[in-house]
Amino acid sequence: MMHHTMGVDGSYPFLLAVWLLPLLGAILLWAFGPQLGRLGGPLGCASVGLAFLFTVLSWGAGTQHGDGGALGAHQGLVSWLPGFDLGLLLDPLALLWALIITGVGFLIHVYSIGYMDGDRAFARFFAYLNFFVFAMLTLVLSDNFVGLLIGWGLVGLASYFLIGFWFEKPSAVAAARKAFVLNVVGDVGIMFAIFVMFAATGSTGFGDVFAHAGSFGTAALLTVCIALFVGAAAKSAQIPLHTWLPDAMEGPTPVSALIHAATMVTAGVYLIARCAPLWSQSADAQLLVGTIGGLTALVGAILGVAQWDIKRILAYSTMSQIGYMIMGVGIGAYEGGVAHFFTHAFFKAQLFLGSGLIIHALANEQDVRKMGGLRKRLPFAFVAMGTGVLAICGIPGFSGFFSKDQVIYGALEHGHPWLYAVGIVTAGITAYYMCRMLFIAFLGEYRGGVDPSDLGMRHPELAGTTAHDGHEEHAHAPAWYMNVPVGILIVPTVLIGWLMFGGETSPWAHFFAGQFPVAHLGAPGISELATTLMVLVVVLIGIGLAYWRYATASALSDAVPRLREESIRMPAVLTNLFYFDAAIDLLFVRPAQLLGTVFGRFLDPHVIDGGVRDVAAGARWLGALTRSFQTGLVRAYALFVVFGALLFLAYYAFAGSLR
Amino acid sequence: MLQVAITNYIALSATIFFVGVAGVLLRRNPLIMLMSIELMWNAANLLFLAFARMWANNAGHIFAFLVITVAAAEAAIGLAIVVIVFRDAKNVDVDEVAGLRG
Amino acid sequence: MIGFLFLAVVLIASAVWVVTAKKPVYSVVGLLAHFAALAAMYVSLSAEFLGVVQIIVYSGAILVLFVFVIALLSSGVDPFSVGPNRLPKAAVPAALLVLGSLALTAYGVFKAPTVGPRVGGAAIAAQAGDANAFGSVADFGKALFTVHLLPFEITALVLMVAVIGVILLAGEKPPLSGSSEQAAKARREMREAIVRAGDE
After folding, report:
1. Chain C neighbours, 3+ Cβ pairs < 8 A
2. For chain A, what is the mean pLDDT?
3. Which domain holds residue C144?
4. CATH level 3 topology of B29-94
5. Does the beta-carbon distance from C116 to B54 stay under 8 Å?
6. A556-571: per-residue pLDDT in tens?
7. What is the DSSP string of A245-269?
8. Largest CA distance in chain B
9. Which of A627, A632, A642 sits opposite B25 (nearest CB)?
10. CATH assignment of the domain containing C20
11. B71 touches chain C (CB under 8 A)
C-alpha cells in the first residue's frame, strides 16, 4: 500500500526540539523537584519558552507547500509495523495549535510562578504543567491516529494530575477522577474509530486514511465519525459528556486557564478539523456534530446564568464557546471554528488569569456574591476582565467578534438555519451572563464583610476552593509575575481578530490555504452584514438586560437583598445543572457499583474462588477414590486380577477369535 | 483309550480352574490360597495334555512339564514367604497383612 | 467315557474339598487325592511320562513341602485362628465373577469348532507297546532336548533363581536382635502398628 504523508518529508530538528523540550523539563522537574525548590518555576518556563521560540522558527517549514499537494513539514520518527509508522507533522493546523500551546502556555507558566508561590509542591506543579504541554504537543504534532491517541490519553492523565493537584481536598480528588473517567469514555471512542479505520484502509496514518476516505462506505464512515466524535465530546466537554468540566475548576486557576480553556478542551476541535476529509464526506455526521455543538453552546450559556462561583461561570462559558467551535468545524466551517478557537484561547486565558488575580488577592474567595466594588480595589484586574468580556461578547472590533460571526454565518452557509438561530440566541445569552459576572463582581460596594446567609449562600464553606494554607503570612513573589502575562494577553484579546478581517483575502485565509477541503456552498438568504447586525442587536440586548438587573444605581444599592432573592429563587433545574450529573449517576455509576458489589460479594468468593476450591476438592475426591482401591488386602487385589481376566475372556468370547 | 469329546475336557478344566479361583478369593489362610493356586496350575496342565492328545502333538507335554517345574519353584518361594511373614503372627490370615494399604 | 466321568467327579470333588476344608491339613489330603486322580487322567490321555512326573513332583515334593510348612506354622499357640474378615463384601462379587467366568467358558466351549479328531485317535492307539510311542519317555525326551531345548534351559534358570531366592529369604536376619520372644513381640507390635496405620 502506498504510503501517503501529508507534509514534505525531511529532517526538522526544531520540530523535534519543540516536541521534546517540555518532556525534558517535566522529567527534570519530577526528578529534582525538591532540590530545585523555587528554581522549578523558571526552569519550567524556560523549557516551554524555548519550545515556543522553536515553534516560531518552524513557521516556514510549517507553511511550506510541497509537490503533490503536500502541506507543511513531516518528520518521520519510528517505522515499526506496516501501517503504524509514527511521525510528526507540522502543517498550518498543527502549527496554530502548537503556537497557542507553547505561547499561551509560556505566559501561564510565568503567571504560575506568582500564583503558586509558597505552595509546598511548587516544582511538582511545573513538572505537571510541562508534562501537559508535552502531551498536548504529542496530540497535535502526530501524523497518525495512534500518536494522536497516545497524546490524547497523556493529556487526560495530565489533567487528572493537575485537577487533583491539591489532593488533600476530597472534592479535588473526586473531580479529578470524574474528569479522567469521562475522558476514558472518549478514549474508547477513538480507539474504536482507529479499529474501523485500520480495517478499512490498513493504516493509521493521516495521509493514508484521508487518501482512502472515499473507499470507506457510508456506514463505516459514519461509524468512524461518530466514534471520533465521542472522543471529541468527552475531551471538549460537549453534551452529554460535559459534567467533568465545571468540577475541574477544583484545580489551581493557571490549570483552568491553560488546560480547561485554551488547549486541552480544544483537542476535540482539533480532531474534527484534522479529520475534515472524513467529515466532509458524511453529511449525517456533520449534522450530528453540529447539532450537539449548538446544543452545548446553548445549554452552557443557560447554565452560566445560574452560577455564582466565578470560575464556574467561566467554565460554563468555556463549554458554550467550545460548543460554537465544535458546531463550526462539525458542519464544515473549518476556518471559522478554528478561528474561534484561536481568539477564544486568548480571551479565555485572559479571563481565567484575571479571575486568578482576584482570587489570589481576596485570599481564595471565588463566590461573586462576596465580591463587588473590585473596580476600585483591583483596577488592573477590572481592565483585564473587562477586555475579556468585551471580546467574548463579540463587540465589534474585539477578537471574539470576527471569529464568532464566522461560525454563525458559516452555519447558515452550510445549510443549517436552526443552528444559525441557536448561535445568535446563544450570543445574546453569553453577553448577558458574562456582563452579569462583570457587574456583580466589579461594581457597587465590596461585600466581603457581609454575612453569607444574607447573600443567600447556603454553603459558604464550599466557596473558595484553593488549598493554600498560611499563604498570606510569608513573603510573596513580586506581583509582576502575575500581572505581566495578563497585561501581555490584553493585546491579542483585543486585536488578534483583525487577522481574520477581509474574508478570502485575510491573512487568516492565506495561512490556511490548502488545509481544508473546500465545500460548495449555496448562497444563503441572509447576507453576512445582516447577520452581523442581528448578532450585535442580540448582544446589546443581553448587555442591556444585565445592566438593568445588576448595574443600575438602584440595583447596586440594593445589591445584598437582590442577590439573596436571586440565590433563593434560582430554579432547581438550573441549580441541578439540568440533572445531567444525576442521570449519569443513575445510569452508569450506580449500576457499576452494583456490578462491583455483585462480583465482590458473590461471584468472587463463590464462583471464582469456589471454582478453584471445587477443582481442588475434585482432585482430592479423585485421590480418595483411587486410594480406596489400595486396601492392602491380598484378596481384594486378587479380585481385581480376576475381574481383569474376565474382561479379557469376554473380549475373546464376543469380539475375538471365538466369535 | 478314552473316546471323549474335547469339550468335556475343556469344561472339566475350567471347572477345576474356577474352583481354584474361588479358593483364592474366598479363603483367608495363605496356605489354602497357595493350594488353590496349585489347583489352577493343574487345571491348565490337564487342558494342555488333552489338546496334545487331540492333535497328537508333543508340544503340549513339553509345556505341561514346564508348567510343573515353574509351579514347583513358585510353590517353594511362596511357602518361604508365607513362613517368614506368618512366623510370629497372631493369626495366619492374609487379611492381617495389609501393610501395602494406601 | 465312564472312566472319564469317574475321574472327573473325583477331581472336582477333591478340588472343592481343598477349597472348603476347615483345616489346611484336610486340604492337603484333598490335594493329594486330586493329584492322584490327575495322574490317572494323564495316563488316560497317553501322557504316561507326565503322569509319573506329576506324582513324583507334585504329590511327592510340593505336597510334602506344604505339609512341612503347615507343621512349622502350627508351632504357635493358637494355630490357624483367623482374624475378622476384612473383606466381607468379597463373597458376592467373587461368586459372580466365578460364575460369570464359568458361563463365558461354557459359551466359548459351545462356540468352539467341533472339527478335529476325538480325543484318543486310532493312530496313537496303534502305537501301544512301542518304546517311542506318543507320550513315552523316549518320545518326550527327544522333543525336550532337541526341539524345545531353549525353554528347558530357561526353566533350569528359573529353578536356580528360585533356589537362590529361597536361600536369601530364609537367611533373612530378624530386624531386632535379642531373645526370640522379645524379637517376636517387637515384630508383632510393628506389624500391628502398620495395620493400625492402614486403618486410619
Report:
1. A, B
2. 86
3. 1-75+98-113+128-171
4. Helix Hairpins (1.10.287)
5. yes
6. 777 787 888 788 888 8
7. HHHGGGS-HHHHHIIIIISGGGHHH
8. 55
9. A642
10. 1.20.120.1200
11. yes
